[in-house]
Amino acid sequence: MNCSYLTVLILSNNTLHGQILFSSIFNLRNLKILRLAQNNLTRVIPNALANSSKLLIMDIGYNHISGQIPGWMGDLGLFKIIMPNNHIEGPIPKEFCSSGLSSVLGVLDLSMNNISGTLPSCLVLSNINHIHLSENRLRGPIPNSLCRNIFLETLDLSHNQLSGSVPSCLGNSSLLFLRYLVLKHNNLEGEIPNQLCQLKTLSLIDLSHNNLSSAIPLCLNVTAYEEAIVKIDYNSINPFGISFHTLPGWFATDESIELTTKNTSYSYKGRILVYLSGIDLSSNKLTGKIPPEMGNFHTIIMMNLSHNSLSGAIPPSLSKLGKIESLDLSYNNLSGSIPRELVELNFLAYFNVSYNNLSGKPPPRTAQFATDFDENSYWGNPLLCGKPLPKNCSKSIEEPSSSNPTKDDQEEDGGFMDIESFFQTFGVSYTVVLLGIAAVLYINPYWRRAWFYFIQRLITTCFYIFCH
C-alpha cells in the first residue's frame, strides 16, 4: 500500500487493539500528524516511523504500548510527543538532546509510564512549552539545564523519586512564561528558594509531599494566568528575534493539570486552565509564620498549607482572598483566634483548621460559615469553643460582646457559669438564708423555742456519743 501522500492519520478514541503494524511498505514519508490515542494498542513503537521525516505530532497516549523510547525520535523534527499512560520503560534517550528535536519540540508528555533513570542534563529545548514527566520512576536531582528553556510554561515532575533541592534557577528572570510548577510527591529537601519570587506569571505552585523545610518566602507571587499575562513585557523578547506565533497560548495544546482542592484531586483541561490558580505546600517540614503577604494572592482558588510545623496566628489578610474556594491550614502549630474577617470569603467551600492550638470562638455563624463548615473543620483545638463545636464557651474566655449580641451569642450564654460567678452567687445566697432564719426566730416565739430545744437535744446526744 502506497501512502506517500498521506499527511494526517487520526484514529483516536476507538477500540483498536494489537500491535501498530507500520512498515516501510506503507511509505509514510509525508506523514505530519499521527494520533492513535485512547485505544488498546500494544507492543513497541514501530521503527518504520523513523522514515517519517516530516512528522510533527505523535500522539499515542492511553494505550498499552511497551518497550523503550526509540533513539531515532530525537532525529525527527517533532513538535509534540504525547505518550502518557502506557507501559514505556527505560531512560529518556540522549538523542532528545540533538539539535533536530531540541530546536522545535513544544510539548513533551511522557507521564504515567515506567520511565527510569535521571533527567538528562543536556535536555535544553529552546522552544519547549510543556514538560510532563509525572508518575514515573525518575530519580536524582532536577538539572539546572531545565532553567534554560526560556519558553517553558508547564513543568510537571510530580510523583517521581527526585531528590536534592528545588533549583533556585527556576526563578530565573528569563522564564517569563512559567505558569505551572508541579514538583509534588518527590524527595526534595532544603528551602523553598527566594528566587521563585521573580516568577511573575506563576499560576500554580505545588511542592507538596516533600521534605522541604524553613519558612515560606514572603515574596511569592501566585495569580491567575489571565491577570499574570498582562505583566509580561513582550518587547523584552524581541532581541531574541522570536515571532509572536511561537509564544505560549498561540497554539492549542492537550494540556492537563492535576490539582488537589477541597480535599479531592481533580484533573483540569482546556480553557478552564486560564482561571486555575493556587498554592499547595502541604506535607512538608515548613516552619515559621504564615506570611501576611499571602493575602495578596487575590485570584487563587486554592491554598493548602496543612501538615507542616507552621506557628503563630492566622493572618487576617487571608480575608482578601476573594476567589478562594478551598483553604486548608490543618495539622500545624497555629495559635491565637481564628480571624472573624474570614466570613468575607464568599466563595469558600472547604475550610479546615483542625489539629492546631487555636483558641476562642470560630468565626460568626453567618454566610457560608453558617452551614458549610461543621465541627470537623475545627476538631483537635482544645481551646476552641462555641458552635459548631459541642463545647460551650465560659464568660472568662468569651470575646467582648457588642451592644446587640447575635442569636448564637445569646444561645451560648445559656451554658455553665464560670467558677468566680459561682462563688459570688453562693456567698450571697448563703447570707440571705442565714438572715432569713434569724428573722424567723426573732419574730416567732414558737419556732424560737423549737430551735433551742433542737440545739439542746443535739448537744446532749453528742455528749453521750463522744463521752461514753
What this model shows, in words?
The protein has 468 residues and is α/β, with parallel strands linked by helices. The chain has a domain of 40 residues. 13% of the residues lie in helices and 21% in strands. It contains 5 helices and 29 strands. Strands 1-3-5-7-9-11-13-15-17-21-23-25-27 form a 13-stranded parallel sheet, with no helix packed on it. It has a 7-stranded parallel sheet with strand order 2-4-6-8-10-12-14, with no helix packed on it. A 4-stranded parallel sheet has the order 24-26-28-29, with no helix packed on it. Helix 4 crosses helix 5. The longest helix is centred in the last third of the chain and has 25 residues. It is elongated and about 130 Å long.
Q: What form results from the Cα inertia axes? A: elongated
Strand content: 15-25%
The number of E-state strands comes to 29
Number of helices: 5
Tell me the structural class.
alpha/beta
Largest sheet features: 13 strands, parallel
Helix proportion: 10-25%
The stretches of 5 or more residues where confidence is low (pLDDT under 50) are: 232-252, 398-417
Average pLDDT, to the nearest integer?
84
Q: End-to-end span in angstroms?
A: 128 Å
Topology:
Blueprint: E1 8-10, E2 17-19, E3 33-35, E4 40-43, E5 57-59, E6 64-68, E7 80-82, E8 87-90, H1 99-102, E9 107-109, E10 114-118, E11 130-132, E12 137-140, E13 154-156, E14 161-162, E15 180-182, E16 189-190, E17 204-206, E18 211-214, H2 225-228, E19 256-261, E20 264-269, E21 278-280, E22 285-286, E23 302-304, E24 311-312, E25 326-328, E26 333-336, E27 350-352, E28 357-360, E29 383-384, H3 407-412, H4 419-443, H5 445-467
Parallel strand pairs: 1-3, 2-4, 3-5, 4-6, 5-7, 6-8, 7-9, 8-10, 9-11, 10-12, 11-13, 12-14, 13-15, 15-17, 16-18, 17-21, 18-22, 21-23, 23-25, 24-26, 25-27, 26-28, 28-29
Antiparallel strand pairs: 19-20
